[in-house]
Amino acid sequence: MRLILSRRRMQGYFVLRVLGGLIWGLVLGWMSSCAEEDGVLVAGDEDSTEGDERYVSLPENCSEVTALFPVENLLSETDHPCSDWVLTSARQLLQVDHGSAFRWGSSSESVHGASLVVTALHVALNEISVPDDEDLPEWLAEEPLTQECLFTAWDDTQGGLSQTALPSAKIYHPFLPAEQSENGFLHLLPKNDQTLFVMAWSDEADSCSTQWSLTLSDISSLVKGRLQARQPVADELVLLLGFPREAPWEGRLSAAVGRVLSEKEAEECHQRLQALDDEEGAIPLDLENEWFLEGLALGGMSGGGVFNQQGQPVGILVRGAEQQVPGWIARASKLNLLGERVQHALESGDDWE
């Protein structure tokens, strides 16, 4: 298994050891269901990706599962059938040193110039001191919020990342049992791999010294407004977005169309992964709290988003299989679960004051 972080988690989402070298590459790759052997990828035309079924310069369309492609390639292809869906979703993406993240709601839905930001817990734990052999308690920020600069936004008007790291503050992470933080978070369950931040989001937010007035009550209002996104159903296509940390597209926002597997398909794929001794076969299947996807992602995309066809985020990329069954499998923590947990924590009263 792999997490899609930069260590062995989200970057380690799909870490493939290349024969003859110590090159770690995470590959949540080739797309076909557990019941079908035929792939639906379009061959790439870039020299560095030629012959590699994981990559494509641009797919012909986004009406089927695709290989991974750079979002920037759509900027000059405004009539491309993927353009609206991909660019609408991509404008919500953020990059962080050890993975990816995304904005949960548009800038027009901000409060006091701040918006919610989501990433995987194993990405955020790079900034959190995890006690050895101890549980990590559920945590909600106290007021005033502690501010730092972690995230850089993707700006399609500039054709890539903005140059400004935006001020943010950690708000919440769920309880994490000690055994799930061992061995580089190898056994971290998707349902626990989620973290919430707030981030200043305005033209004036041009330095880490930017301040905003934000209370936990404001955050509660923001979260309530985010729980209305339509949830995809089995066999529905979704978009996977994040920043790979391996060549040829290192640091370039990349996308792939994936597919939500049915309960039966997910169980079949999970059983095949068990038979192959893939780490994902040892991680319990929890379809109530995770999306089990046929789709492609690479190391560094941990914390990136899974978007419905309206461009709304519905999941957080967290894990992926190392083996094909026959396609690659990605796992995403459900975003509504995070919203419900935060609401419960905010409403629980004095425990968080």
Outline the structure in words.
This protein is an alpha+beta fold. 16% of the residues lie in helices and 25% in strands. The chain is built from seven helices and 17 strands. The strands form three sheets. A six-stranded antiparallel beta barrel has the order 12-13-14-17-16-15. A six-stranded antiparallel barrel has the order 5-6-7-11-10-9. A hairpin with an 8-residue loop joins strand 16 and strand 17. It is globular, with a radius of gyration of 19 Å.
Which helices and strands appear, and what pairs or packs with what?
Layout: E1 2-3, E2 16-17, E3 24-25, E4 69-70, H1 83-90, E5 93-96, E6 99-104, E7 114-119, H2 121-124, E8 139-140, E9 148-155, E10 160-173, H3 182-185, E11 195-200, H4 216-226, E12 237-242, E13 254-260, H5 263-275, H6 279-282, E14 290-294, E15 305-307, E16 313-320, E17 329-334, H7 335-347
Count of strand segments: 17
Main sheet characteristics:
6 strands, antiparallel, barrel
Q: State the helicity in percent bands.
A: 10-25%
- Indicate the low-confidence ranges by residue numbers: 5-32, 35-47
Q: Kindly name the structural category.
A: alpha+beta
Radius of gyration, taken over Cα atoms and rounded to an integer in Å: 19 Å
SSE arrangement, N to C:
EEEEHEEEHEEEHEHEEHHEEEEH
Shape: globular
What average pLDDT do the residues reach?
80
- In spatial order, strands of the major sheet run 12-13-14-17-16-15
Through-space gap between termini: 39 Å
Count, helices:
7
Strand content: 25-35%
Keywords:
single chain; 353 residues; alpha+beta; six-stranded antiparallel beta barrel; six-stranded antiparallel β-barrel; 7 helices; 25% strand; globular
